[in-house]
Write a structure and sequence with these properties.
Helix content is 54%, strand content 3%. The chain starts with 12 loop residues before the first strand and ends in a 6-residue tail after the last helix. With 178 residues, it is mainly alpha-helical. Helix 4 packs across helix 5 and helix 5 packs antiparallel against helix 6. The longest helix is centred in the middle third of the chain and has 29 residues. It has six helices and two strands. Among the domains are: 74 residues, no CATH class; 47 residues.
Amino acid sequence: MNERGRPLRVERKLITTRPGLMGVANIMAPATEVSNPLEFDHLPDTWNPQAFVPRRPVGLALFCAAMAFAAVVAVVASIFYFVGHYAPSWLPFGGAVSAADVIAGLSPLTAALLLVLAGTILGVATALWRQEPWALYTTYAGLIGGMAYLLATGTFVVLLLVLALVFLYLVSIRHYFY
């Protein structure tokens, strides 16, 4: 014990020989005035790192599937528009289906924009399925943009509520994304 009544620390010194030096090899010397050295019954288990595999919430899986389905439908519709408008002979029955019958009120520019937007949505849905953070933030931006558009036009109150609920759900499961 020292002058304050605390036990002395145990010091273990290992003296080894180095090449070119002469000395004592492998001597363990405990400090004085300590009667019981620390003893261990067992060593801790070895650490085996495991790969982190995040779980996918069911609501996220359903949302991704719905996004992908809507994107595929939009891609197919825009492709049908282009085929019906520019190559009607490729369609069955000798081009009986015209471009106006495929999607009414669509111009070639809007069909091209629909194709690009649907491809982007399909890519975001795939990345959201893989739980990538950038896809979550992109989906946040899309949902906020959709809600802002619906609020500005004053239409589709039910759709606005659905988008708000999806947004709140995605915010609540953000910890599943790495």
